Amino acid sequence: MPVHVLHANELKEKYVLTRNLPTIWCAGCGIGTVLGAAVRAIDGLGLDKKDVVFTIGIGCSGYSSRYVNFDAAHTTHGRALTTATGLKLANPKLTVITLTGDGDCVGIGGNHFIHAARRNIDVTAILFNNSIYGMTGGQYSPATPTGALSTTSPYGMVEGTIDPCELARAAGATYIARSTTYHVQLLRQLIAKAITHKGFSLVEAIAQCPNQFGRLNKIGAAPEMMRQYKREAVRVDSLDAEVPPGKIKIGELYKADRPEYTKMYAKVREEAKRRAAARGQ
Ligand code: SF4
What we know:
Blueprint: H1 8-15, H2 31-44, E1 52-56, E2 71-74, H3 80-90, E3 95-101, H4 102-108, H5 110-119, E4 123-129, H6 164-171, E5 175-180, H7 184-196, E6 201-206, H8 210-216, H9 222-232, E7 233-235, E8 248-255, H10 261-278
Parallel strand pairs: 1-2, 1-3, 3-4, 4-6, 5-6, 7-8
Antiparallel strand pairs: 5-8
The structure holds iron/sulfur cluster.
Iron/sulfur cluster binds next to helix 8.
């Protein structure tokens, strides 16, 4: 069946809460690009808005719920995936998508990220990775590259850097992909695949924060940051692909098939009901 691709104005009318525009985001911020790719992916899949719920963390990307017309829970810091887990268990028919930043996801909410992946719950996490805590003042996050400048690492960040995709694989996620705001069509396609995947899926979206990361590291404004993504990104089809140092692997990086949590949990419920009935309860 031919899919009607909506024009930008039709998309805006259908999905954007225009009463809240203009957005709070700085000029050139990459968050809107990632959010736009997510909305286009949802629209392309033909999902009914009523069946889609966002859970959203804290940080600049947390403002997303102000601008898109979906049911959404703006949660406490790092807890967007716990809310997503509860929603999905309560109503497995929902498409549950978590929007989270790098500080929110692999910093403050790192433990919840690990356990959502370990359970393989059918939730899609879209991780806006701008390598910094943008909203709270430019502090380094666990995803800040070693050596990079931030307001809390004025001489260069000396800690190791978490690769969210590697962490997700180690924890048990079954779909892992990465793209950048420069490679926005790929980003949209990967988000669509992640949403249709049955199990925990992560799409890491490398997104520019020109106001904090770009400025502090003297990379320049958004166009320079996106040109850097263009230069550094290498399209691969595996997380284990060899790329030269300093390059970013983008593409569908990992896929596995493993039992999904809500289905396993449903069996536990059935067994509990059966035993309760046997006891006459
Ligand atoms: S501080 Fe950075 S991430 Fe936050 S809105 Fe501004 S550019 Fe975007």
